[in-house]
């Protein structure tokens, strides 16, 4: 049987996070987002060389930063180079859980013009997560019309 180019349980795109203190981050993601640790490869000096977590139906890979390889954390860079979007069944409960685990609010929860209830958090390791529950199906026309009311003109 041929090897699958995308392994079972993975999607075509998988985030890979560079982190200072990846072991602590794994514990945080378990507490805040219900992550399940699928794999961990330790590196010298108590570092995590590679780890894989499952959050819902998605994989998130992470490791301690390795500046020699150009793999730098948000703390080293002075901010994240990307954000993560996490769709959940009850965004209010998940947001509260993440705050209780040590995240800080960057944008509070609110119903958005595009049909999601969402808010944005920064985790203790500098990564930014937007948590959302989809609450309303809208056409592109409806979203565009609503966006015009929320976006600054000029």
TrEMBL record:
It holds the Pfam family Glyoxalase. InterPro entries: Glyas_Bleomycin-R_OHBP_Dase (IPR029068), Glyas_Fos-R_dOase_dom (IPR004360), VOC_core (IPR037523). Signal peptide: none annotated. CDD domains: VOC_like. PROSITE patterns: VOC. Residues 9-134 form the VOC domain. This is VOC family protein. It comes from Crenobacter cavernae.
């Amino acid at each position: 049987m041929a090897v699958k180019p995308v392994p079972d349980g993975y999607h075509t795109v998988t985030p890979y996070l560079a982190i200072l203190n990846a072991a602590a981050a794994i514990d945080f993601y378990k507490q805040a987002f219900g992550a399940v640790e699928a794999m961990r490869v330790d590196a010298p000096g108590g570092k995590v060389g590679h780890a894989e977590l499952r959050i819902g139906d998605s994989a998130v890979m992470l490791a301690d930063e390795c500046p020699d390889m150009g793999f730098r954390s948000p703390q080293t860079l002075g901010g994240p180079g990307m954000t993560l979007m996490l769709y959940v069944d009850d965004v209010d409960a998940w947001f509260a859980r993440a705050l209780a685990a040590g995240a800080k609010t960057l944008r509070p929860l609110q119903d958005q013009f595009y049909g999601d209830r969402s808010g944005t958090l920064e985790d203790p390791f500098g990564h930014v997560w937007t948590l959302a529950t989809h609450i309303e199906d809208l056409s592109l026309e409806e979203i565009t019309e609503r966006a015009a009311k929320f976006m600054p003109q000029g």
